[in-house]
Amino acid sequence: MSLCRHFPIPSDRMGIVWSVLPVRDCAVIEYGPAGTTHYGAEVIMDFGIKIHKNFFCTHVDENDIIMGDTSRLEQAILEVDKTYRPKCIFVIGSSLTSVIGADIRGLCRLLEGQVESRLIPFEHGGFRGDYSLGIADALEALVKEIACPPAKKREGTFNLIGACYDSYRVGSDVEEICRLLKEAFGLEPACILPYDCSYDSIRHCTEAECSIVMRKEGIRAAKAVQEKGGGGWFYGVPYGYQGTEKWIAQIAQGIGREPDPAFRKEFGRKLIWAKKKENELRCSPLPMNAVVEGNEMQVSGIGKFLKEELGMKVEGILTHSPKGMEEVPQWCRFLPEKEKLDVLRGCSNSLVLGNDETLSQTPETNTKLQIGFPAKETIVVANHLPFVGLRGADWIMESILTYYNKLVISMMMQ
Amino acid sequence: MQEKTILGHVKRLSEVNGRRDIMPLSWVTYPGTHCPLFGAAITVRQMKNAVMLVIGTEECTYYTKSLSLVYGEYGGLDGRCLSFVMDKHDVTFGCQDKLKKAVEELVKEYAPEAVFLITTCVPEMTGEDIDSVADGLWNAYNIPFLTVHTDHFRCDGHLSGIQNVWAACAKMMEPCVQEEGVNLLGKKAGNSELASFLNAAGVRVRLSLPSDCSLEEMKKAPAAKLNVVCSKQGLLLAKEMERRFGIPWVSFYDRCRPAEIEEGYKMLFELLGKPMPEEVEGKKKKLKEKIEENRELLDKGSFILGNSAVEPFVLASFFAELGMEPLLIQAKEFEEEDTAYKDVILKQGMNPYVSQSANLAAMAGVYELLKPDLYLGPAERDILLQHQIVGIGLPKAGQMLGFELAEHMVECFAEGMKRCRQIKENGI
Predict the structure, then answer these.
(1) What value, to the nearest 5°, has the Cα angle with vertex A245 and ends A239 and A251?
(2) Contacts of B61 in chain A (CB under 8 A)
(3) How far apart are CA B319 and CA B298, in angstroms?
(4) Domains and CATH numbers, chain A
(5) CB within 8 Å: B28 and A58
(6) pLDDT tens-digit series, residues B245-282
(7) Could you list the residue range(s) of the whole structural domain that residue B64 is in?
(8) Model confidence over B374-409: pLDDT tens digits?
């Protein structure tokens, strides 16, 4: 990448901070310039992550850089351990300390006997990959470093892995998934990683009956849960009507229980309605196009809903590299900024789903729905407006039908 | 015991002789100081038609782009805040060729009148010679390319970023025929008392930084007869303009006492070859009256000095002379010229702690220990009130100079002290 006109792709380090900061009873110490922490805190709070006596910075000066002196970090760890008594401290390097090769891991090992907090180091300085890699590494580290082998099994509970704050309206998505699992199988959440979890809930996540992985960044963490004696895991997100049906079926098969009959009956009614809508749209001679931009979970999930259930032509644009991810649909691409802008500015009379930035670049002939951050024009409050599950499918369907109506009117005006 | 924990390692003013003597309150900070990159970004925004290219990691560039959307002047998402993102290859092998290619795209797409190349911590640490790249680009495209260094590991806070942007501007200034008029450097002081005195004397204010000035106006800044340094961040530019164009300067950012302010006006009008306006005497008298009116209220009061638009040691010495004791001064720098204010404070028998700023998390532990009457600057007001401390600010200080500024300071402190007395007498 050379000239970047809009937002750069967030780095691995940013993904790590977003993923570990929400874990309750823990603290984050950044070993780097204070300005980065101050700056970063503003974006972090935009995501809805709470900061209260859990996010600190050491700052660094010339002496630390030139002499490679890590005593400042050492004192910082001792101080946070003593003052705030967190159960765990995530010690995160910065681009500066990564370039000078500060041995954060070694220091944490050295201090292990001197502090009560568990120390988990991250030496990513922003140069290993993008935020998607950071999220994957952080989720895996949380499980590998914190989770214990199960002392007992808690049937009827599940872990939800990969519910990350960088996903717009993640709170609503989590609520909808929990609602569906409760109504269909009577399942209760054990650990929602990292959206709503504590140090102890991660410790005991191996006791849950199963793990449900929302995004591919969480697969390594789910495997780690299983390796430590936890339950089996399923990857999948319930986007769309049929997508939700398949997801329910997948879980039913995995846990060996059928969904509740009352739930199935209600669900079946909705599917009949959705099938009718699908037929209407599929029978229409009007070409329906969509551009979906976001992380892989959103793009492939919503994209499949539009493409496979409704027969729309979909172009997927990823906001991170799919490197290392399996089964990414071919129509999902990670484009250089210039090419991405060409696609966005060139699309017309389409349904466009993306973030503020994406939507602002597309002409007004398009029908637009915000599904991602940055969200400069919106402050998220609601927890009942998901993109996933039946409610999410309904909400996305509203935009689809609005888009379809616009196409119909436009055709009639010709 | 508590003092040992929180302030035990923090030096008192008598021991402070430089930045290295200013200790942090704790080993960790939150939120911590803003970085010079932030300072540079909020300054370049006011220069019309100038493009800002931030050279750094994804994080530095992402956050700056995010910040640029808050300010309309940048022109939103498609606006003139751009990034050059360094990857690990650039860190290892250098980024100059790639940077030049990026600039080629930038010039083609944005047709800028000037480009600020903002270097951040990583390129500064790896030693990228962006200054020479800028010189080469200036020659190649025949538009100013100005380098602004914003490495946070060499300074404490965003003010150096503001200062460095203005200082960089000196490079694009052109020798001009000297005309009547002055430049106001460092504050939006176009509506200040000083500006009205100049106006009454028939002296034109040419350039007022920061303001929405065009690059053409900036280039012609040396046509002024005199520079007035309104905040410390304008000092470097004033000195550079004196060096390059022989323009004298008078400072006002360091004057709070009536006699000092009067002396400043005397110097100013002497250099302009104009008689001092009669209103100066009247304003001085008014300030003195205001001080006398509030002297009893301020005397024996105490305060912690956080962040304000007035230089910390200037402000602390002013109130120390009025009998108000600074118990803790949060400062980013201690420079040679601060020694005079230090002496004034020490002479009053006061010896405050001096710590680094922007650490609200740790500050909470200091309130109970020092028990000041007032806290000046941004703080968690509810926590202050729990300790019967009144939080105050100087809301108009950013646009004021001279007698009016000192009067405003006295008013704000006096109001705070009144409130504090009420709280102590009647509870919250």
Answers:
(1) 95
(2) 4, 8
(3) 8
(4) 12-129 (3.40.50.1980), 146-263 (3.40.50.1980), 268-413 (3.40.50.1980)
(5) yes
(6) 999 999 999 999 999 999 999 999 999 999 999 999 99
(7) 36-155
(8) 999 988 888 999 999 999 999 999 999 999 999 999
